[in-house]
Design goal:
Strand order of the largest sheet: 1-2
Number of helices: 3
Largest sheet: 2 strands, parallel
Number of domains: 1
Oligomer: single chain
Length: 57
């Protein structure tokens, strides 16, 4: 399969999903076209988890 687009998403995208702030992000995840691949640098996951932990305190 040929990939047409790689979309890099970062911390704000993940935070928007986790906090329910961006309903369009959920739509994108559920309906990502086959020609699009999402990529997230691993540091963004760590940063998002750290931010969520801080917000809980």
């Amino acid at each position: 399969m040929k990939i047409g687009v790689i979309l890099y998403v970062e911390t704000n995208f993940l935070m928007g999903i986790a906090e329910g702030q961006d309903p369009q992000a959920e739509d994108l995840l559920r309906n990502t076209p086959n020609s699009v691949r999402l990529a997230t640098p691993s540091i963004c996951f760590v940063e998002a988890l750290t931010t969520l932990e801080q917000e809980e305190k």
